[in-house]
Amino acid sequence: SLPSRVRLIDVGPRDGLQNEKQPVASSDKIALVHKLQEAGLAEIEVTSYVSPKWVPQMADNHAVMQGMQRQVGVRYSVLVPNLKGWEAAVQDRPDEIVVFGAASEAFSQRNINCSIAESIERFAPVVQAALAAGVAVRGAMSCTVGCPYEGDIAPERVAYLAGLMKGIGVQRVDVADTIGVGTPLKVQRAIEAVLRHYDIDHVSGHFHDTYGQALSNTLAALQMGVWNFQSSVAGLGGCPYAKGATGNVATEDVVYLLHGLGVETGIDLDKLVDAGAFISGVLGKRPQSRVAVAILNK
Ligand code: HMG
Ligand code: MG
């Protein structure tokens, strides 16, 4: 049987916007966070504390974190790659930080400029500092089924990374299909590999929709008992170090799927569609969510 309730982390403000070439005003990012929490999102990935030379769109991390009105009960998370990022992030009081590694060596090099082993060395003191400060720690694991540079990734390598994350104290992990090449069985194998180190309550699915498989992959993960997922309002996004990869699966589409299955999300779909329409308007794009387009055309 499927989980009765699912928790969605909307990563739109971070994963969704990080790859946009035109700077998005901090006020629009803040408005997006507000609309997402009004729609009932209990977790929002707001920004990242990375090099502004690498990812200019996230350079206004302080302004966004300081400018938003927090809602009680909502968890605000931010990406942190190293101690420098932690020192900047801690000033803005995130509820959770996300260290981000990859199951693929080549992707680790392109994304964070170091090997997998080096990345874990960099994360270890960050995780320690965060936990000591009472901040939760999540670990994103990129390329758990495929890599733009290495092709297929074996489940063994996913298990290896999950074990390293566990070893440094990361509390829960995201199984990310960064370039959206996964299909249900491959995604299930990657999750099984992670379950050697983390229990199901501490594993989340992070599926990009490049090949149109993200909803199927979501259902495949649900069938294993996964009940935490990341998605991006309006299907925004793409990773700067994964050419051609589309955004995460659209939150609207996941919510429609879940509600259709009788799974609770706490999310108001109409308000969520409004949030997606808002940010799509800011970007001068159409929402990439099929559900949003269908509802807006009704
Ligand atoms: P590096 O060049 O190896 O770092 O970058 P460094 O320590 O040698 O420092 C070089 C310069 O960066 C220095 O500045 C540092 O001060 C600065 P300079 O002296 O040249 O002026 N620097 C920083 N600035 C701000 N914040 C920091 C920071 N650290 C160093 N934290 C680094 C290493 C990780 C910083 C770099 O490679 C980087 O920023 N990469 C960007 C990674 C990124 O944001 N990728 C996208 C997010 S991951 C993703 O989207 C995948 C995910 O969604 C899951 C999935 O779908 O797979 C999570
Ligand atoms: Mg991603």
From TrEMBL:
CDD domains: DRE_TIM_HMGL (cd07938). SUPFAM superfamilies: Aldolase. Gene3D superfamilies: Aldolase class I (3.20.20.70). One of its GO terms (molecular function) is hydroxymethylglutaryl-CoA lyase activity. It comes from the Bacteria. PROSITE patterns: HMG_COA_LYASE, PYR_CT. It is an enzyme of class 4 (lyase). Pathway: Metabolic intermediate metabolism; (S)-3-hydroxy-3-methylglutaryl-CoA degradation; acetoacetate from (S)-3-hydroxy-3-methylglutaryl-CoA: step 1/1. One of its GO terms (biological process) is L-leucine catabolic process. It comes from Comamonas flocculans. It catalyses: (3S)-3-hydroxy-3-methylglutaryl-CoA = acetoacetate + acetyl-CoA. Belongs to the HMG-CoA lyase family. Residues 6-273 form the Pyruvate carboxyltransferase domain. It holds the Pfam family HMGL-like. This is hydroxymethylglutaryl-CoA lyase. Coiled coil: none annotated. Its EC number is 4.1.3.4. Keywords: Lyase, Metal-binding. InterPro entries: Aldolase_TIM (IPR013785), HMG_CoA_lyase_AS (IPR000138), HMGL (IPR043594), PYR_CT (IPR000891).
